[in-house]
Design brief:
The chain is mainly α. It contains 17 helices and 4 strands. It has 2 domains: 37 residues; 414 residues, Ammonium transporter fold.
Length: 499
């Protein structure tokens, strides 16, 4: 081969190489452009959310079931287990039929602030390629994963209520009430607090406004941005902060439980007969499962795996530990002995209180939150309950509602950057990025109080109406004979234990 031929071949190879590189770069740019139009779910985020979903399911069954079951008398252990398992199964089916659609899709303009629509009825239109927004621009997760994660929240919330009227409500009444309650109370509250168009929708509208050059175009673009911001639940539009369910789950279920306990009346023998927990061993196992599962509950609520997820994880750890110690020590001083039940109750109170704040507060703020919530809840489950005489059997109101109220309001304080919090987020100031938002503590606390009051009224009044309807149609209360025999045998024909 001549030097000339060799040179020509080298030149041809170089040209082909350059062309290949150019083609690859062109394809890469094309892929980047496509990705900008349609973000693709990250496998790591998807994996974390699937794990979180399983963890939250574990909170209900077996966690909550064992926690509650150990607290009732032996003759009612199986009834509580059955109620919790039934509620999870019932709500899961209702969720995929119409619950998800009502909670997390856009409804008619006139009611969209309070309820969604039917675009996902029977999950129609949802495919493995469908995605749901997270809290980061350009980051999505599969919609099936988001739907399933939110389904576990819908399952556990009504299950929390049964602790308030444990040992005295007919099983048939529990089924009907829970079906009505998730439909009329839970789905709207979830929509009001958590539904929004997502960061990318805001960014796109804000970019169009920034690019507008004349008054007419600016007016049109501003109207479009306003419409995107208005495509959200009522409390979300107000700026209420609830990272993982202080209002949606705990206040919502807690006030419904109190109303139920009052409307059903006291258990037969309440205040006259001893009604101690039959198995604190079971309760300790259940509480431990709740704590572990709560990492999925809180850290999973960030919807992706990043630094905020880690923050929520840490806050869930330390707030719970601080609250358990706080209840233990305060009760020790008051009653003279430290109790396991007190420590477990404190742990749950800490989990409840940190839920709305978990992704907003700093770790030290979460420790303070945990230390303060336990004495407050202890006061309500002992002094206040004894003063008013209501039979909240497993202290759903005293721990979940009171702890949820305290946590929700405290979130408005602990989110402050100068207290170690993350501050507020503005998705429109610099379209495509999450910028720090304007924060005024008094303003945010007032917003949090409005969210608390809205939830108390919606769930409290709505639940009272639903209890009354069920009572008129099929009756709420088990007979005195059934209560004395125990609901295990009277309602289910089984026993939790056969000796």
């Amino acid at each position: 081969m001549s030097i000339k031929d060799h040179a020509q071949r080298i030149g041809l190879a170089a040209a082909l190489g350059i062309g290949a590189v150019s083609l690859m770069n062109g394809l890469a740019f094309a892929d980047d452009a496509a990705a900008a139009v349609a973000p693709i779910a990250n496998k790591g985020d998807t994996s974390w959310m699937l794990v979180s979903t399983a963890l939250v399911l574990m909170m209900s069954i077996p966690g909550l079931a064992l926690f509650y079951g150990g607290l009732v008398r032996t003759k009612n252990m199986l009834s509580v287990l059955t109620q919790v398992f039934m509620i999870v199964s019932l709500v899961a089916v209702v969720w995929v039929v119409y619950g998800y659609s009502l909670a997390f899709t856009q409804g008619p303009d006139s009611v969209n602030a309070f309820i969604g629509g039917f675009s996902r009825l029977f999950l129609m239109g949802m495919t493995p390629d469908s995605t749901a927004a997270t809290f980061s621009n350009g980051v999505v997760i599969p919609e099936y994963v988001y739907m399933a994660f939110q389904m576990t929240f819908a399952c556990i919330t009504p299950a929390l209520i049964v602790g308030a009227f444990a040992e005295r409500m007919k099983f048939s009444a529990v089924i009907v009430f829970m079906l009505l309650w998730v439909t009329v109370i839970y789905f709207p509250i979830a929509h009001v607090v958590w539904y929004w168009a997502g960061p990318d929708a805001i960014a796109d509208a804000a970019k169009a406004l920034a690019a507008a050059t004349d008054d007419a175009t600016k007016q049109t673009a501003q109207a479009a941005l306003d419409a995107v911001n208005a495509n959200a639940g009522y409390l979300f539009q107000l700026g209420a902060l609830d990272f993982a369910g202080g209002t949606v789950v705990h206040i919502n279920a807690g006030i419904a439980g109190l109303v139920g306990a009052i409307m059903l009346g006291k258990r037969v023998g309440y205040g006259k007969e001893a009604m101690p927990p039959h198995s604190l061993t079971m309760t300790m196992i259940g509480a431990s499962l709740l704590w572990v599962g709560w990492f999925g509950f809180n850290a999973g609520s960030n919807l992706e795996a990043n630094g905020t997820t880690a923050l929520a994880f840490v806050n869930t750890f330390v707030a719970t530990a601080a609250a358990a110690l706080s209840w233990l020590l305060v009760e020790w001083v008051i009653k003279g002995k430290p109790s396991l039940l007190g420590m477990l109750s404190g742990a749950v109170a800490g989990l409840v209180a940190v839920t709305p704040a978990s992704g907003f507060a700093g770790p030290m703020g979460s420790v303070v939150l945990g230390l303060l919530v336990s004495p407050l809840c202890l006061f309500f489950v002992s002094t206040v309950k004894n003063k008013f005489g209501y039979d909240d059997a497993l202290d759903v109101f005293g721990v979940h509602c009171v702890g949820g109220i305290f946590g929700a309001i405290a979130t408005g304080i602990l989110v402050a950057p100068y207290l170690g919090g993350v501050g507020l987020t503005d998705y429109a100031a610099k379209p495509g990025t999450a910028s720090p938002g304007d924060y005024v503590m008094a303003t945010q606390v007032f917003i949090q109080i409005k969210a608390v009051l809205f939830t108390l009224v919606w769930s409290g009044v709505g639940s009272a109406i639903l209890y009354k309807i069920v009572d008129l149609v099929i009756g709420l209360r088990a007979t005195n004979d059934a209560e004395r025999e125990g609901l295990d045998v009277a309602e289910h024909g089984e026993r939790a234990y056969n000796y």
